[in-house]
């Protein structure tokens, strides 16, 4: 297993425990992207990424993320299909009942994550990666 896979696995292991405290793995100038979904946007630097995470997590209770697998696309990119569940703090909506899934694309260079792109919709992610046409199920 490559060092990049080990790094991404360790990040997800912490996230599965709802431990969002460590950013040692992040390049100081990391780019964090929500490619789609209700809070799409780009944030730069560790502080920007931290603020994006806080914003996303603040709307939910019992946020849980479970990776399905880790796919090394090349020397610098690791793709992680995942499922998540949570309950809206205000609405009480249980998103886990819908078997919600997404993809995270990690860009790693010199042992640090330089970019994370989060996709709530898998079709969009696969289309962006050139693995399928947008709107076509993978």
Mean pLDDT: 84
**Approximately how much beta-strand content do the residues carry?**
35-45%
Rg (CA only):
15 Å
Helix content: 25-40%
Strand tally, please?
7
How many distinct helices? 3
Q: How many angstroms separate the termini?
A: 26 Å
Structural class given helices, strands, pairing?
Answer: alpha+beta
What spatial form do the alpha-carbon principal axes imply?
globular
Which segments are poorly predicted (pLDDT under 50) over 5 or more consecutive residues? none
**SSE topology string:** HEEHEEEEEH
- Main sheet record: 7 strands, mixed
Question: Can you put this structure into words, describing what you see?
Answer:
This protein has 138 residues and is α+β, with helices and mostly antiparallel strands. It contains three helices and seven strands; from the N terminus they run H-E-E-H-E-E-E-E-E-H. The chain has helices spanning 3-16, 45-58, 122-128, and strands spanning 26-34, 41-44, 60-67, 71-72, 77-88, 100-109, 112-119. Strands 1, 2, 3, 4, 5, 6 and 7 form a seven-stranded mixed β-sheet that branches. The longest helix has 14 residues, at 3-16. The protein is globular. The two termini are 26 Å apart.
Summarize the structure.
With 138 residues, this protein is α+β, with helices and mostly antiparallel strands. It is built from 3 helices and 7 strands; from the N terminus they run αββαβββββα.
Characteristics:
alpha+beta, 3 helices, single chain, seven-stranded mixed beta sheet, 138 residues, 38% strand
């Amino acid at each position: 297993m490559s060092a990049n896979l080990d790094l991404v696995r360790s990040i997800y292991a912490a996230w599965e425990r709802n431990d969002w405290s460590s950013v040692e793995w992040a390049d100081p100038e990391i780019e964090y992207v929500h490619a789609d979904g209700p809070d799409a946007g780009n944030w730069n630097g560790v502080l920007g990424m931290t603020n994006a995470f806080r914003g996303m997590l603040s709307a939910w209770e019992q946020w849980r993320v479970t990776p399905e697998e880790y796919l090394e696309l090349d020397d610098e990119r690791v793709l992680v299909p995942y499922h998540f569940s949570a309950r809206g703090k205000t609405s009480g909506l249980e998103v886990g009942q819908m078997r919600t899934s997404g993809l995270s694309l990690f860009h790693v260079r010199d042992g640090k994550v330089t970019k994370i792109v989060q996709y709530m919709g898998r079709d969009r992610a696969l289309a962006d990666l050139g693995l399928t046409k947008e709107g076509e199920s993978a």
